[in-house]
């Protein structure tokens, strides 16, 4: 039995060999039976501990030095047992019996000591995890005491925290109470909440998680968006990371991920009950496997939301649509009737609209907001159209048709309507960066960045998108990188549904969702398909490995690639997209994907490119030995990317390759330890944003060569210590953002020579012991700072008092999207 526990583990095998050696002695070791019995007892106790250590070493790549002593001890023990086996009555070796007995007792004592050490080490590791979480809370509390910050620094963000409820709910008090009765009952481990799309299942699950009684019972709550194509290994990994509060390497298999999660729950959930919410689970084999696996987990409750029934799991709860009173209340709120902003139409029209929405919260909110501020005639037409439709419960298509009427009122704002349609290009159930939306709109609709954000605000005001991060007036000097939003998958389906109503050849948007290697038949059947779309979006899952069919896309201006596989070979037909202006490549996974092309000359051929955005990509951008310059490229953005050696190589002629670049944005790229000096030769550069790059400790010495630089953002680069002296040559600088640079010890002595500077954001620069006296020369600067710095400025330069703004923000984690 003990040997079965060992399995194929590394340390377990070493212990198992010693155990086997004891068994092989048999009757030959009868003289040592008492002490061997004690040793066997120790080995039986050590084996489970060693097995856990093996698993942790394997999964987490923990250091193995601490267990080397055990290896040596086991080897010595095997040699000693071989010698004991040679001791026979009447033999000369028998005289050595007392000596061997003493050595065996020393081995027994050593095993006891090592067992104590192993237990201490495991307790230590658990305390380390608790310490990490305590440090996180300590930093958050410190930020709160100092007036708030938008971003705690250098912390791992658990992927499955429960999102906040961002608006007041209507009609969910009774369902929450009924859920508590059902799920908290003894013997019930899993409860499935079912209802059609748009009924508010996700909102109900969030309301349940934030209920006071539920919070008191479950100290650990995990919220996992599942959607149509669940990745079991990734979901299990996300749950483990959220429970442990640390980031894990990629787990090798579904089984290993499940075993590790099961092990962790057994160790921790006795005193820390766990609630796991699986949101938006679709029918299919993958979903069945996921539910089966999680149903086997010990010491936890599982709440599932789904449009589908799962008969194998008997406990279910059907979420009814809102009753008439609550439906009216929600609709009035969405249409601003309760605030008197919109003129109240006749009751009959309101009843038609509410009846047509079938009291579904999503339809009520979207259509209500679309009618806000509209004339009575628009209300009447909408009510008449909705009254003609059939039952919304028959299929999601009828829900889509119902919601489509909310777009009809956008006909007077075609850019907003078209932008909504474009949102079908992005991966379902994922956050979309506002910067990505801006990159797309600036090309397709010739908008500037502020106009694109107004369009996004319009979509939000109509509940067609939901902002993840709280919006600020003015969007913080046009810095949109920290703003993101989501779109309900029903609304994404609506955009795709409307697109599919056109023949493929006439579509201005071509959106391809590829499952496995199942390519669209119309694409495979044609030797070379021709598309005249201006926007093409291709989404592939982790199983995709097919070779790409050919395509001619002479009119495409925006290409969006949504990836899930760890390696990805770009389609060769991209090279012929001569009008391509925006390239967006996003990987939806925990780590990075390696993006390659057949001849490493992909970017060379895309000479019309104006904007490039990479998210979670490890790509050697300039891998071609003789790359061609991207003469039209104006902006390049990196989010959570890893830079190749060619980017860091001082001999790479970056300025020659990007001669007209205006903006570089680098966010959460932790392997960026330094900025290439050659980058400072791009004299056209006007905006440089390096934010949340915790590996960055210094700026290049030649940063002063960026003579046209207007905006320099170094927000949340926590290990940046000082500026090079050449910084004072940036005479065109309008904005300098060093907020949350907690390691920054000093500013340039001649900072007063930044005569064009209009804003200096130095909130939470806690290592700045004093500021240069020349700062008093800045005449037209708005200072954002902490209270202590503000008081110092007012004292040293009283005339600056009106320009100092102490930022009194509440500490929050909205930037995480939870």
Describe the protein's architecture and organization.
- Residues 1-153 form the RPW8 domain.
- One of its GO terms (molecular function) is ADP binding.
- It comes from Cucumis sativus.
- InterPro entries: Apaf_helical, LRR_dom_sf, NB-ARC, P-loop_NTPase, Powdery_mildew-R_dom.
- This is RPW8 domain-containing protein.
- Among the domains are: 2-126; 173-318, Rossmann fold, CATH 3.40.50.300; 662-818, Alpha-Beta Horseshoe (Leucine-rich repeat, LRR (right-handed beta-alpha superhelix)).
- By secondary structure, it is an alpha/beta fold.
- The longest helix is centred in the first third of the chain and has 49 residues, at 97-145.
- Strand 3, helix 11 and strand 4 (300-306) form a beta-alpha-beta unit.
- It is globular, with a radius of gyration of 32 Å.
- 39% of the residues lie in helices and 14% in strands.
- The strands form five sheets. A 13-stranded parallel beta sheet has the order 9-11-13-15-17-19-21-22-23-24-25-26-27, with helices on both faces. A five-stranded parallel beta sheet has the order 2-3-4-1-5, sandwiched between helices. A four-stranded parallel beta sheet has the order 14-16-18-20.
- Helix 2 packs antiparallel against helix 3, helix 4 packs antiparallel against helix 5 and helix 12 (324-334) runs parallel beside helix 14 (361-371).
């Amino acid at each position: 039995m003990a040997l079965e526990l060992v399995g194929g583990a590394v340390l377990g095998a070493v212990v198992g060999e010693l155990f086997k050696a004891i068994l092989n002695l048999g009757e030959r070791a009868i003289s040592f039976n008492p002490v061997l019995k004690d040793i066997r007892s120790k080995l039986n106790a050590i084996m489970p501990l060693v097995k856990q250590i093996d698993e942790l070493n394997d999964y987490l790549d923990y250091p193995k030095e601490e267990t080397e002593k055990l290896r040596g001890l086991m080897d010595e023990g095997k040699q000693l047992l071989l010698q004991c086996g040679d001791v026979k009555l009447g033999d000369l070796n028998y005289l050595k019996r007392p000596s061997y007995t003493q050595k065996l007792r020393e081995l027994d004592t050593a095993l006891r000591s090592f067992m104590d050490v192993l237990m201490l080490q495991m307790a230590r590791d658990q305390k380390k995890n608790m310490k990490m979480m305590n440090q996180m809370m300590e930093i958050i509390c410190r930020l709160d005491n100092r007036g708030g910050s938008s971003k705690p620094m250098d912390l791992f963000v658990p992927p499955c925290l429960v999102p906040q409820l961002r608006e007041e709910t209507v009609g969910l008090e009774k369902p929450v109470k009924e859920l508590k009765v059902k799920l908290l009952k003894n013997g019930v481990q899993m409860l499935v909440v079912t209802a059609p799309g748009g009924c508010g299942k996700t909102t109900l699950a969030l309301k349940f998680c934030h209920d006071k009684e539920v919070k008191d019972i479950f100290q650990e709550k995990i919220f996992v968006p599942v959607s149509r194509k669940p990745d079991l290994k990734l979901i299990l990994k996300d749950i483990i990371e959220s429970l442990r509060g640390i980031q894990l390497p990629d787990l090798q298999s579904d089984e290993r991920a499940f075993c590790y999660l099961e092990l962790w729950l057994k160790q921790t959930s006795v005193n820390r009950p766990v609630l796991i919410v699986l949101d938006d689970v679709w029918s299919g084999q993958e979903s069945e496997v996921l539910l089966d696996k999680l149903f086997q987990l010990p010491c936890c409750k599982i709440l599932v939301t789904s449009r589908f029934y799962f008969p194998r799991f008997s406990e279910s709860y059907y979420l009814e649509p809102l009753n008439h009173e609550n439906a009216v209340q929600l609709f009035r709120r969405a249409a601003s009737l309760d605030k008197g902003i919109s003129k109240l139409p006749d009751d009959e029209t309101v009843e038609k609209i509410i009846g047509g929405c079938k009291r579904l919260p999503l339809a009520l909110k979207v259509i209500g907001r679309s009618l806000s501020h509209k004339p009575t005639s628009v209300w009447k037409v909408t009510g008449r159209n909705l009254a003609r439709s059939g039952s919304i419960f028959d299929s999601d298509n009828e829900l889509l048709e119902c919601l489509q009427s909310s777009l009809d009122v956008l006909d007077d704002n075609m850019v907003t309507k078209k932008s909504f349609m474009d949102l079908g290009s992005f991966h379902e159930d994922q956050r979309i960066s506002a910067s990505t939306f801006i990159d797309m709109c600036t090309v397709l609709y010739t908008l500037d960045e502020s106009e694109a954000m107004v369009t996004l605000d319009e979509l939000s005001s109509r509940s067609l998108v939901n902002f993840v991060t709280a919006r600020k007036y003015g969007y913080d000097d046009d810095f949109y990188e920290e703003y993101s939003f989501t779109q309900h998958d029903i609304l994404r389906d609506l955009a795709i549904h409307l697109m599919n109503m056109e023949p493929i050849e006439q579509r201005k948007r071509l959106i391809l969702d590829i499952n496995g290697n199942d390519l669209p038949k119309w694409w495979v059947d044609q030797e070379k398909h021709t598309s005249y779309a201006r926007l093409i979006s291709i989404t592939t899952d982790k199983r995709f490995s097919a070779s790409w069919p050919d395509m001619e896309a002479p009119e495409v201006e925006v290409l969006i690639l949504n990836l899930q596989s760890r390696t990805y070979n770009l389609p060769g037909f991209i090279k012929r997209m001569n009008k391509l202006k925006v390239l967006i490549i996003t990987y939806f996974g925990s780590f990075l994907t390696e993006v390659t092309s057949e001849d490493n000359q992909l970017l060379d051929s895309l000479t019309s490119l104006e904007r490039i955005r990479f998210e979670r990509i490890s790509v050697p951008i300039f891998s071609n030995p003789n790359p061609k310059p991207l003469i039209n490229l104006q902006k390049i953005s990196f989010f959570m990317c890893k830079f190749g050696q060619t980017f860091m190589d001082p001999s790479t002629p970056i300025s020659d390759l990007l001669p007209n670049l205006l903006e570089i944005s680098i966010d959460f790229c932790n392997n960026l330890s330094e900025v290439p000096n050659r980058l400072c030769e791009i004299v056209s550069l006007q905006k440089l944003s390096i934010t949340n790059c915790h590996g960055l400790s210094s700026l290049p010495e030649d940063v002063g060569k960026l003579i046209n630089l207007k905006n320099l953002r170094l927000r949340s680069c926590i290990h940046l210590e000082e500026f090079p002296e050449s910084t004072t040559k940036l005479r065109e600088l309008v904005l300098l953002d060093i907020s949350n640079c907690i390691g920054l010890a000093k500013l340039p002595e001649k900072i007063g020579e930044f005569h064009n500077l209009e804003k200096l954001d130095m909130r939470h620069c806690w290592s700045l012991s004093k500021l240069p006296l020349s700062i008093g020369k800045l005449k037209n600067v708005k200072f954002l700072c902490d209270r202590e710095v503000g008081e110092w400025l007012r004292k040293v330069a009283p005339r600056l008092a009106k320009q100092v703004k102490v930022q009194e923000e509440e500490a929050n984690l909205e930037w995480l999207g939870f």
